[in-house]
Amino acid sequence: MAKILVIDDTALARESVAKLLEYEGFDAMRARNGKEGGAMMYNETPDLILFDLMMPEMDGITFVRQLRRSTLWKDMPVIVLTGVDDNDKLITRAWELKVNDLIPKASFGFEDLLQRVKQHLPAVAN
After folding, report:
1. What gap in Å lies between CA 40 and CA 38, rounded to an integer?
2. Beta bridge partners of residue 5, listed in sequence order
3. Number of domains in the chain
């Protein structure tokens, strides 16, 4: 099954999402910030990345900017799972960097999350 990298500095959010994905048969990798997530990708490339925008050391915008500049991962499907308000400039910046989807933490449900993950996974990973 597909590998999904979950990047979130909040342990509860990171573990909740990762455990849900594992329950559904996915292989969930975990990282506390973009810097840690990026380093992990050199050892094990995920099929999709779920990440938060607001994190220490390397935030989500910096992470996805570097990802999109990389020849290895420029086309990697990425989904933002964030607590940032819809009107925040970070949301606009994320869309400009070609994120595949954006899910507000305040209103997401597990079924919705799973549907969006499956929608954006490359066909070979399903």
Report:
1. 5
2. 29, 49
3. 1
- Predicted TM-score of the model (pTM): 0.91
Judge contact between 54 and 81, C-beta under 8 A. Answer: no
Q: CATH code at 105?
A: 3.40.50.2300
Contacts of 86 (CB under 8 A, 6+ apart): 104
Where in the sequence is the domain holding 18, given as residue range(s)?
Answer: 3-111
Across 36-100, the runs of DSSP E, i.e. the strands, are 48-51, 78-82
pLDDT digits 0-9 by tens, 55-106: 899 888 899 999 999 999 999 999 998 877 666 787 888 888 899 999 888 7
Q: Kindly report, residue by residue over 2-57, the tens digit of the pLDDT.
A: 999 999 999 999 999 999 999 999 999 999 999 999 999 999 999 999 999 888 99
**CB distance 29 to 6 below 8 Å:** yes
Nearest Cα neighbor of 110 from 46, 37, 19, 29 is 19
Residue 124 lies in a domain: no
Is residue 83, in this structure, part of any structural domain at all?
yes
